[in-house]
Amino acid sequence: MADESASRRLELDPADLYRAAWSQAVSAFDQHMRTEIGRTSFHQPDAISEGVRYLVDVPPATVWDLAAQHLPTPADPPWTRDMARARHREVLDRRNRIAHEADLDPTTGRRDPMTWQEAGDAVAWIDDLGHALHTVITRH
Fold it and tell me: Which of the 8 DSSP states describes residue 135?
């Protein structure tokens, strides 16, 4: 019996590490906003706008317009308010599937595939958004 357990190897799927990084990036951003402002959650784009409004005197409707101006430019065209909000929702939706549904595809019961590039892009998005919002807050 002891030999059996000693011979078993821990099988680790690298995609699980990517999921953890993805989820932790979103959670770290949310925790920072909660600490600064005291709101329950800052995941959703409208909640982020509300949080920024607590710090600077800008209309909530313009927060994402201003943030988009400070995001690193992808290919063409530059970021717009709607593009930034949509990207953030994509990252959040996947994070929620990871955190609440184990990233399982409801039709197959298997985890959705994830690569290091996808996880890296999600973490980079959170970092870029944090820097863009910081710029909005410090310049207004």
Answer: H
Residue 104, strand partner residues? 111
- Residue 13, in any domain of the structure: no
Q: What is the Rg, in whole angstroms, of the alpha carbon atoms belonging to the chain?
A: 18
What are the tens digits of pLDDT across the range 110-132? Answer: 999 999 999 999 999 999 999 99
Beta strands in 64-121 (DSSP E): none
| 23 in Cβ contact with 99 (< 8 Å) | yes
| 96 lies in some domain | yes
Structural domain including 108 reads: 28-139
- Give 23-59 pLDDT, tens digit per residue: 888 888 778 777 766 666 778 899 888 888 878 888 8
Tokens of 58: 């800008």
* Pick from 111, 136, 121, 132: nearest CA to 22: 121
At 43, which amino acid appears? H
Q: How many structural domains are present in the chain?
A: 1
Q: Are the CB atoms for 59 and 104 separated by under 8 Å? A: no
Residue 11 in domain = no
* Residue 82 in domain: yes
